[in-house]
Amino acid sequence: MSSSNLKDLQRELENKANDLSKLQKEIAKNHQMRKTYTVQLGENELVLKELDLLKEDANVYKLIGPVLVKQDLAEANANVRKRIEYISAELKRLDATVQDLEEKQNSKKDTILKLQQRIQSLQAGKGKA
Questions:
Q1: Which helix (H) or strand (E) segment is 43 a member of?
Q2: 65 Ramachandran zone, left/alpha/beta (phi>0; psi -120 to 50)
């Protein structure tokens, strides 16, 4: 009885460990995406500062493929502001996702720890018998 119970607990422990590993990979992926968005946000804020320094009649060009296309300053400003808004929203979404994943990760770790303790107590009981 104790032997099959122990095997079941070990199998469950293995499954939980695999789930934890998947969660950790997902968290790492989200951190990498967040890093990318943070860099893009910094670049776009820098572009916005540069655009703010320009006079109303300044020429602004946008790179589309291999071609530089003339663009209205107000339109360029609006586009950069929209990009900043979008990136900021994505960062907030990623933060919420990472927080949720980390909570799940902590819960899994607690479950795994309890399982390990149960397995150890079963093994200790079996060793005495």
A1: helix 2-53
A2: left
